[in-house]
Amino acid sequence: MVPKRVQDYMFSILSDSFSRYFSPNFTFIIEERWQAVDNETFRAVEAYLPTRVGPATDSLLIGSNDPHNLEQSIPVDCKIIDKFEGMELEWSLRSTEAKKYFHRERRYFRLKCKKSDRERIMKSYFTYIADIAKTIISKRENLYINTYDQEAGIWDSTVFKHPATFDTLAMEPKLKQEIIKDLNAFVERRDFFQGVGRAWKRGYLLYGPPGTGKSSLVAAIANYLRYNIYDLQLQSARSDADLRRILTSTTNRSILLVEDIDCSTKASRDRTRIKDEQEEDSEDEQTHKLSSSDPGVTLSGLLNFIDGLWSSCGDERIIIFTTNHKEKLDPALLRPGRMDVHVYMGYCTPAGFRKLADAYLGINDHCLFATIENLLEDASVTPAEVAQHLMKSDQPQAILESFVEFLKTKKNETEEGK
């Protein structure tokens, strides 16, 4: 006589009560997102569990960019049994369908244990996982470069295999050592940043003519620190709120890269210059700007993104801006605390040429080196131009003779330009 829906409801109440009071098990849930940012505990478990794959594991996700070097990961619904201090723990990765206001599935880990082990797991086990994961991440073989997909609202990643290192960079040795010293100090001074009340981040501005090695320096920093790169085009952000959401979806121990910031958005440009440019805009361009539905990123939003409250949503991050025209940037962006280190990437120097000659030709000295170094003092030649010329042949004598003629031509062009 009891309706079926009432029966189901009563059964669910009794089932929940029974499991709550009589079941010996307890379940931890670790979701991918935590309080509007990436859940670092989820990332730690994601790095840790592939090292605990054993005979009891019922499925495994494998793949590789190199068929001779397979990598493994945890697929959805895979179960892994781990043992820690006499406890037997069951892990599984689950996924739920995305709701209409989410752009992708929501993943979470389930950890099933005995109720009596709950406190030990909270105090010891998760700390143990965090320490192991930190070691794994610091020694990871693959780095990733991420590009923001505006339509899907997620970061798309691909393996980053740029060969640039500080050993291969064609830049002044003194400047190179200063950058390395600054990076080491940043990584090792977490307590210092907390003690002085500053977010654990560092801002770099790389500026100079095109082809002077700004992108190569970014790659060298990533390879040196073993940090993933998030390559952000500011046009991808429709508004300041959108920019904040993009920022909070990046992970710790990463580089946030904004290339050619003077071209990315007018919010970064000197406000006096923008006013002059707007007066020169055509009527059609002005109409297009007024009809745009996306307000875009404002200067205040960009500043808050660099050193405001939202910039503290994460630890151990490096923000790198590159530009060919530092003078076009608004002075507010250049103040200490926003872009902490300004690195000028200039034309090729004698020291830079010797590094390139060693890399491309395999020689450390030659009778033409003195002539070339004297010409480099007066000719404006980028490291990219030097590298392009040196890689034309594997005959050092012929290449250097041709390069001398090239430098003489560039010197004449420079003098005529002046």
UniProtKB/TrEMBL annotation:
Gene3D superfamilies: 6.10.280.40, P-loop containing nucleotide triphosphate hydrolases. It holds the Pfam family AAA_assoc. Keywords: ATP-binding, Hydrolase, Magnesium, Nucleotide-binding. The keyword Ribosomal protein does not apply. GO terms for biological process: response to stress. It comes from the Eukaryota. SUPFAM superfamilies: P-loop containing nucleoside triphosphate hydrolases. Residues 200-349 form the AAA+ ATPase domain. It catalyses: ATP + H2O = ADP + phosphate + H(+). PANTHER family: BCS1 AAA-TYPE ATPASE. This is AAA+ ATPase domain-containing protein. It comes from Rubroshorea leprosula.
